[in-house]
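Study both lines:
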Amino acid sequence: MFDTEDVGVFLGLDVGKSAHHGHGLTPAGKKVFDKQLPNSEPKLRAVLDKLAAKFGTVLVIVDQPALIGALPLTVARDAGCQVAYLPGLAMRRIADLYPGEATTDAKDAAVIADAARTMPHTLRSLEPTDEITAELTVLVGFDQDLAAEATRTSNRIRGLLTQFHPSLERVLGPRLEHQAVTWLLERFGSPAALRKAGRRRLVELIRPKAARMAARLIDDVFEALDEQTVVPGTGTLEIVVPSPAASLAAIHTQRRALEAQINTLLEAHPLSPVLTSMPGVGVRTAAVLLVTVGDGTGFPTAAHLASYAGLAPTTKQSGTSIHGEHAPRGGNRQLKWAMFLSAFADPASRTYYDRQRARGKTHTQALLRLARQRISVLFAMLRDGTFYEPRTPKDVELAA
């Protein structure tokens, strides 16, 4: 639970782009502040200093700690105030307990302040991040935006190929991550253009970009071309496909450059060797873990970290008719997805998963249990500062 014993005033902020609405309450519930605050350092600092001089310790609570909420939190820390985060979903559920259907900045700020005062267990600590973690937060967010754009563009290309030439899509669609394939589609975007270029020429053209797979790829392409001799809308493909293919190639280039930057920052962080010692945790996954978990000190136990990730089972009970543990729907999606992506990186994890399936668990249930087990290991590694230690088959059997 967040410690609010020494707090003199709870300042809830409903953050905005140009201004924030602040609502201040004393521990007894007396309103001492309720007005808009411009999103500028001098104005924010003046208010915080005034409240601190009159009431002592100021606890600043926001419902959006990143982006538009970054400046007030930074100024609050520098001014010697405590800071906390009230998750947006919890804030909206708490707001439903207050009378009235109106949703205004003033009401939201009041709800945030009152929730911090009366329900400190709903708060999350916001420890000051070091410069490396702060930079990683920006880069990881940008990388995730690029990944989403790459997925959207890939789906568009695959949709076009499926519409006009399903056989060719089955060959090129799964390989769109490779620069040789995007280069090929950018210059020869239709079956007719590929066939006209010729097998030998295409092999020589893409060999510098895919030395090991050039001949095999082109053989697969021409085999697909031979399967379908009638191609509707081939002229359309020549016009449309090269553009998203070029965009996809540019996105992949950006992501590779970004990964190099992330790796450089990651290597300078003291926890990097600890995180990357766990099988399945590469550069991007380790960066996500640092951004979402930090050094792990914000979580008292592994169960708290699992709950934050949305990997702890949720108990639902109502009399004798409903009772059981159910898969959670919330949690930090970045952290949960990182645990899923690294799930089958070592034999011990695969053995654990297979044992769960043998006991009658569905794929989702077994995967959740595996991710929950791995996040407990991650917590212990961060807590003790130790590297990952492979488990023996006996250890896996006991853990199962």
Q: What stands out?
A: The first helix runs from residue 41 to 55. Strands lie at 9-14, 19-25, 31-38, 58-62, 82-85, 124-125, 314-318, 322-326.
